[in-house]
Design brief:
alpha/beta, eight-stranded mixed sheet, 14 helices, about 50% helix, about 15% strand
């Protein structure tokens, strides 16, 4: 099967290499030439424009987007509109908001194209471990993409599946990332408690290694934590600033819309927001309130 990949970011580049190794004809396009050159060195074909990418594919074409969520996806779809033909496939493999995916699917199908959303997890490890893929789309469309999905997955029959109609893949991936927020926060808080118990002289790397085998809390995320603590036990040089890519916000909002309590995910998101405050007004005002009603001392800067 021939495939055109657009974006070729860190994960997209790894996916391209895996697809090439799987025996598919892959054409890659990115705005930066060096990114395209890198995947060409791995055996893929390169394109210097979307038109050039589409022109190298035989219909029915499959164009897989691996680009940031939001306006970049809409802009790319508009650029692809005059280039593709009825029956061609557009796959959004990025972490788009599922409501945007529903809107885009209606638009793309009105142009005569097929649309499939693939929530993709695996990050930079996907090349060696395979990608976990949550697929949304019509059964026939997903079946058409099966050879690609089986190549990218950890195994042909493991690590991927059709979640439901269009939008469901990105919806499931959104919740997946919300859960990830909670897991990460729990690990971080637990290790912070261990680190603060100075009189025991605990070795956090050793603890992570012990938990890695047989423990109820063992996981791949714990393996990565163990690796990080082995490389930098005191986290020297790391700023306490945590970004979010949107999925946690979307999950918390969706939970409220569905009247489902999700306190762990929501608080994990709030903690990330708090980590970015360099001059927290909230705590300053709290200190002043205590001073006003109780005469408590205020610590000055």
């Amino acid at each position: 099967m021939e495939l055109g990949m657009v974006g070729l970011g860190k994960m997209g580049g790894n996916m391209t290499v895996r697809l090439v190794k799987g025996g598919h004809t892959v054409v890659g396009y990115a705005r930066k030439k060096d990114v395209v050159d890198a995947v060409v060195e791995q055996g893929a074909k390169g394109a210097d424009s979307l038109a050039n990418l589409v022109g190298q594919l035989k219909p029915p074409r499959v164009v897989w987007l691996m680009i940031p969520s939001g306006p970049p996806v809409d802009q790319t779809l508009e650029q692809l509109h005059p280039l593709l033909a009825p029956g061609d496939y557009v796959v959004d493999g990025g972490n788009s908001y599922y409501r945007d995916t529903l809107r885009r699917s209606a638009l793309v199908t009105s142009w005569g194209f097929r649309f499939v959303d693939v929530g993709t997890s695996g990050g930079i490890w996907g090349l060696t471990e395979g990608y976990s893929m949550m697929v949304g789309g019509a059964e026939a469309d997903v079946e058409h993409l099966r050879p690609i999905l089986e190549t990218l997955a950890p195994a042909p029959n493991r690590g991927w599946g059709r979640m439901g109609p269009v939008g469901s893949g990105h919806f499931v991936k959104m919740v997946h990332n919300g859960i990830e927020y909670g897991l990460m926060q729990a690990y971080a808080e637990g290790f912070a408690v261990l680190q603060a118990k100075e009189e025991f002289g605990l070795d956090l790397h050793q603890i992570a290694a012990v938990w890695h085998y047989g423990s109820v809390v063992r996981s791949w995320l714990l393996e990565l934590t163990e690796e990080a603590l082995g490389e930098n036990p005191t986290l020297k040089g790391i700023a306490p600033y945590v970004v979010d890519s949107g999925e946690g916000r979307w999950t918390a909002s969706e939970a409220m819309d569905l009247n489902i309590p999700a306190p762990v995910i929501t608080l994990a998101l709030q903690q990330r927001l708090r980590s970015r405050e360099t001059d927290p007004f909230t705590e300053k005002l709290l200190a002043m309130m205590r001073n006003k009603f109780g005469g408590h001392a205020v610590k000055t800067e």
